[in-house]
Amino acid sequence: MSLRPDLAAIADMIAPNSRVLDVGCGDGTLLEHLKRTRNVDGRGIELSQQNVNQCVARGLSVLQGDADADLADYPSQAFDVVILSQTIQATRAPAKVLENLLRIGQRTIVSFPNFGHWRVRLSLLFNGRMPRTRALDYAWYDTPNIHLCTIRDFTQMANQSGAKIEKALALGANGTKPIHADAFGPNLMAEGAIFLMNRRGDAAWGPAISRAGSS
Length: 215
Known about the structure:
Layout lengths: L4 H8 L6 E5 L5 H10 L2 E6 L2 H9 L4 E3 L2 H4 L8 E7 L8 H11 E9 L4 H10 L23 H10 L2 E10 L2 E4 L5 H6 L2 E8 L16
Parallel strand pairs: 1-2, 1-4, 2-3, 4-5
Antiparallel strand pairs: 5-8, 6-7, 6-8
């Protein structure tokens, strides 16, 4: 089974035999792929009991939990990599969640939809209504996304949270492209983004990131 482009890009960043925590792991597709192809020691947290049941049926170690409430219980530096995929915009306190991710993992990978994409801007400009796009395919009244952000917004929050950004990728219809610093282009053109980070000031730790993900 093929992975979504963002999950495939995340998987390429994970070195074999890493200890991985996938927060908001959904039905376990990424964790299962990482266990099969990278032999990771994988754990997951998922809010939906139905998704937790699917993960357990796949033989995955996944607990029902809430990123806002439960990450504080995890010890510091417990995992090589902590993943939060397409979830941070659905949390009540994104900055606090990110701080916990950076504390728990030696490295942190976060992906999210970009509310600064040109289709979003044009929809607001010409229609005067909250947009629906491929990356944000919800009506305003039933969306789980309560803290939408742009790539520039996330970069600012990451810096304020004490994160050192090791790598950033813009997501689009044609795959992924590197984001350089706080560039204007990706903030306008990318449908989403993936950030690989560690906690600023911490030393480098072991081969937690694959060579494919470090270029």
